Amino acid sequence: MPKIGVVVLTMGDRPAELGALLASVAAQEGDPATVVVLGQGVKLPPLPDGVDSVELPENLGIPGGRNAGVAWLRERGGVDVVVVLDDDGLLPRTDTFRLIREAFAGNPRLGVAGFRIADETGASQRRHVPRLGGKNPLVSGPVTTFLGGGHAIRMSVIDQVGDFPAQFFYAHEETDFAWRALDAGWDIDYRADMVLQHPRTEASRHAVYYRNTGRNRVWLAKRHLPAVLVPVYLATWAAYTLVRRPPPSGLAAWWAGFFEGVRVACPPRRPMRWRTVWRMTRLGRPPVI
Description:
Residues 18-142 form the Glycosyltransferase 2-like domain. This protein is an alpha/beta fold. The protein has helices at 15-26, 61-76, 96-106, 155-161, 173-183, 209-224, 230-244, 248-263, 274-282, and strands at 4-10, 34-39, 51-55, 81-86, 110-118, 141-142, 150-154, 187-197. It is 39% helix and 18% strand. Helix 1 (15-26) links the parallel strand 1 (4-10) and strand 2. Helix 6 runs antiparallel to helix 7 (230-244) and helix 6 (209-224) packs parallel to helix 8.
């Protein structure tokens, strides 16, 4: 069965939640996973026995921190599947790692398994369901992206398609990775039975949310879409942002980020194949929405 490695990033400000998460990881059935906690430019609190620690010299952002965790696991060796978990999350079930092992062993083309994010009541926010409209959070199935808070990636997929885009720092790095994985022929599944319990929050709580969302949407399109789809994708997201009516300060930050993305390059540009566009369309999420 595949061997699991776990990556947890922390800013050091949630020691109680981190401790609870690590306890839930240790409680998983089957062989113990290799676990590493990375401090994003902070000193880490004491960690349980069997959990390794890495104190990064600075905050590398979410994708950069994940890349550092994957590099550590790769150097350690013996890891087939990388599981990434938010430091304020919790695995409420003890069979999640067994489900992960079975999923990747049973489907050689499975590249990513995305978890269902649920709050303490078991409810999932619409933004946490990777389908248009946030439909059917309790139904598993193939999707075109996954959630950063809880997911599992086959290590060989990372070796093939590359790391998360460190330049993004925060926002849409999972979609960037997902599009590359789909274009390489891998499957992405949303698994409602793989649950990460997470406090109910709003993405806009992050100070860089609006600016990075606007910028990284442009970078995502410029990096991966066929040229004819780039303006369609960006126009769709601009219209969607206006319809959602963010606060004036948020809208100003979003447009600043949008034009930064237009102005600043984020190489490399590797447009996906039209076959991948059609595949995403059949999965219910054409890359213009």
